Amino acid sequence: MKVLVPVKRVVDSNVKVRVKSDNSAVETANIKMALNPFCEIAVEEAVRLKEAGTVDEIVVVSIGAKQAQEQIRTAMALGADRGILIETDAELVPLSIAKILQKIQQTEQADLIILGKQSIDGDNNQTGQMLAALLDVAQATFASEVKVEANKVIVCREIDGGLQTVSLNLPAVITADLRLNEPRYASLPNIMKAKRKPLDIKSIDELGIELKQHQQIISVNAPKVREAGEMVADVTTLVDKLKNEAKVI
Amino acid sequence: MSILILAEHDNQQLSAETAKVVFAAQQLGGEIEVLVVGHQCQSVADDAAKLSSVAKVLLVDDAAFEHQQADNVSKLVNTLAAKYDYILAAATSTGKDTLPRVAALLDVNQISDITAVVSEDTFVRPIYAGNALATVKSLDAKKVITVRSSAFDAVAQDGAAQVEKLDQNLVSLVEFISQTLTESVRPELTTARIVVSGGRGVGSAENFAILEQLADKLGAALGASRAAVDAGFVPNDFQVGQTGKIVAPDLYIAVGISGAIQHLAGMKDAKVIVAINKDPEAPIFQIADYGLEADLFDVIPKLLKLI
């Protein structure tokens, strides 16, 4: 079976971002970019399914600037077979991304689509669910375990009170949570091999879809900085401060 | 203007988060209705009817909705959506699962996890793990919004709305197999007034027992960092952070937690933060109101005696 894995280029998760001085956005120029950690987990899961003999082909797709090719190459170095980049400089909301992915799925006809549960820049947690709605297929969000059995996929999901297991008919959309797996590192030979894997670049116009503007960013501000507190010398002082100064216990 | 709120519940009890979504909805103005979808959940609808300023409760009680799966619940909401300007839910695992599907069916983009209402079409939401706050104006005719419940108060329970039953039955595309919920006698993490959290520094699952004692003494909920969850010290629904639960208690006690960006995203709005850590360089001390550089195994027994 075929798996489609949408991936996103984001600011590296270890970078502490800064808001631009004109409050229009977050500063992303000259900042280390990376594959969104949840997308990495999604790619890893697809590769594991391939290694288990369940999956024949893994197609990775990214939507964004030209440089997102780097993240597609990273995914290919991890084991994806080919890549598609829908090149655009526009900042797209999850619904627009989901519409583009819907179009790609119409051509690719993948049996399973695995996404990350959220991107660590927008923190939206929407794209997978929206794609499943547009395709009218089943979804299992926040997956921590995925098993393919015949024409079904059994998914264990992380929910607020614990874990839930569900079964989905294929095709289906799954979004990966942190604990689904531990992504591997790309080896140097695989990085070299990934350079020769096919990468198809298209524009949104070529896909023949019209996208609407759904929202406008009015401003981006830095959150209130917490006042630095104090170091206390011992437990007695701490308890005293909590009781008499902060009055929280 | 009218607002539909999708209630958060487990078929028996209305979650405290719904009352906070109602509070956020009050700031939009307009008539508020609450939709309770589930199975054998009349008591939930009765609870929702008591929430202040709720005009009506819609109850869809059918075996098809027992597990509140995103696909059939979103189709149901879509059939009701025509008369509402806003569709809201708490940003819980259920809300996050379902509402984007509702938004896609309505051809609108969702505004996720709002922390403030600026005006009827403009909202504040954190991005980049809470390191920036975006003020976003929705251009969509209908607004589909998830609400960060820790950013809003709960409304009072002085209402007396009518409960109206609707007959709906939509079979889900997803087959439910099983569920294991973490048993806990402590307060719920997201609504607790005090949270005691442990990190990698706690060392083992057994050592978490000492934090449990502290939590019980304080009537607090128990939380954890990702490191503690990954190490298997506690179940993953204890995780506080960007990808876990977002809490804003009166008091947050971080024990053996270094304070990575992703953890701070889940607790930096707590009123008072206490950090107990052996490492004086731990980033958690930069945001803690009270920091104590010490070994937790010395500190906690003393704390237990003093409080």
Short structural description:
The complex is a heterodimer of chains A (249) and B (307). Chain A has helices at 37-51, 69-78, 94-108, 127-135, 188-194, 204-207, 235-245, and strands spanning 2-7, 9-11, 33-35, 57-64, 82-87, 112-116, 138-149, 152-159, 162-169, 172-176, 199-203, 215-221, 230-231.
Explain what the structure shows.
The complex is a heterodimer of chains A (249) and B (307). By secondary structure, chain A is of the alpha/beta class. In chain A, 29% of the residues lie in helices and 31% in strands. Chain A is built from seven helices and 13 strands. Chain A has helices spanning 37-51, 69-78, 94-108, 127-135, 188-194, 204-207, 235-245, and strands spanning 2-7, 9-11, 33-35, 57-64, 82-87, 112-116, 138-149, 152-159, 162-169, 172-176, 199-203, 215-221, 230-231. A nine-stranded mixed β-sheet of chain A has the order 9-8-7-10-6-1-4-5-11, with helices on both faces. A two-stranded antiparallel ribbon of chain A has the order 2-3. In chain A, strand 8 (152-159) and strand 9 (162-169) form a beta hairpin. In chain A, helix 2 (69-78) crosses helix 5 (188-194) and helix 3 (94-108) packs across helix 4. The longest helix of chain A is centred in the N-terminal third of the chain and has 15 residues, at 37-51. Chain A is globular. The N and C termini of chain A lie far apart (58 Å). The longest helix of chain B is centred in the N-terminal third of the chain and has 13 residues, at 93-105. Helix content of chain B is 24%, strand content 29%. The radius of gyration of chain B is 20 Å and the shape is globular. Chain B is built from eight helices and 16 strands. Chain B has helices at 16-26, 42-49, 70-80, 93-105, 208-218, 226-230, 261-264, 296-306, and strands at 2-6, 31-38, 54-61, 86-90, 110-114, 116-119, 122-127, 132-138, 143-147, 162-165, 174-181, 194-198, 221-224, 251-255, 272-277, 290-293. In chain B, the strands form three sheets. In chain B, strands 5-9-4-1-2-3-10 form a seven-stranded parallel β-sheet, sandwiched between helices. Chain B starts with a strand and ends with a helix. Chain B is an alpha/beta fold and 307 residues long. In chain B, strand 7 and strand 8 (132-138) form a beta hairpin. Strand 12 of chain A pairs antiparallel with strand 8 of chain B.
